Amino acid sequence: MWQDKLKISIIIPFRDRVDLLEKCVSSILKKSTYQDYEILLVNNESKKEETYVYIKSISSNPRVVMLNYKKQFNFSAINNFAVRHAKGEFVLFLNNDTEVITENWLEEMIEHIKKPNVGAVGAKLLYPDGTIQHAGIILNENIAIHIFSHIKDSDFKKLKEYNKVRNWSAVTAACMMTKRQLFIQSGGFNEKNLPIAYNDVDYCLKLMSKGYKIVWTPKAELYHYEAATRGLDTLSRFLNPKRHQKFLQEQDYMRKKWKSIIKNDPNYNTNL
What we know:
Elements: E1 8-14, H1 18-31, E2 37-43, H2 49-58, E3 64-68, H3 75-83, E4 90-94, E5 98-100, H4 105-113, E6 118-126, E7 132-134, E8 137-140, E9 143-146, H5 153-156, E10 166-167, E11 175-179, H6 180-185, H7 199-209, E12 213-224, H8 236-239, H9 241-257, H10 259-263
Parallel strand pairs: 1-2, 1-4, 2-3, 6-12
Antiparallel strand pairs: 4-11, 5-12, 6-7, 6-11, 8-9, 10-12
């Protein structure tokens, strides 16, 4: 069957927080029914001894490839670096603070990304309390908003128009699958202007501008312990003024580059 012939490269950047990383990797290895995949663990200057103990223990697994990114944190650059080492026809960007719920999550995502007109596929992400973290991204004056965030999943499932496979203008790279060659040909994530935030949204909008569809499926479910490693960028002004300044610069870049589409999201009616 075609499922056995298309390799997926799952890219997981991390810096320490082995408690999260181990849970994430373990859930992939134990729960995934799709078998043709590799896991690229990208170590961004971890410091703690327990991290390296775990790395040593997992490195013997034939599915796991260890990569070292020995530069300052830049989400775009880290993932671009990993894609250059990927062997799969498809790459799946995955946060280290996620945990697989549905065993057939990879089958559900690859079903859509294999279509010629689909550029990226996102999944349903839940907070540990069972509320929605990601069910698609809409565009507005705040650049990008996770629609239905914090709504109970049981309530969300009653919204038949939204709890189904559908198109959005963007999905989060906390769990996003795309075609490797398309990613490379499109220039990957923007390392210069979007090293921290909005790189996934920018990538989706680049694809959409070229005629590709951005698909979200509720049939691939994972938990997402959002921002457990780095913290939320929206709260960074209280913790790190320099980081917050970069965040504001990235917002400004997105507003200027995608001004027209941000004002009129083609995949969302503001009257709703």
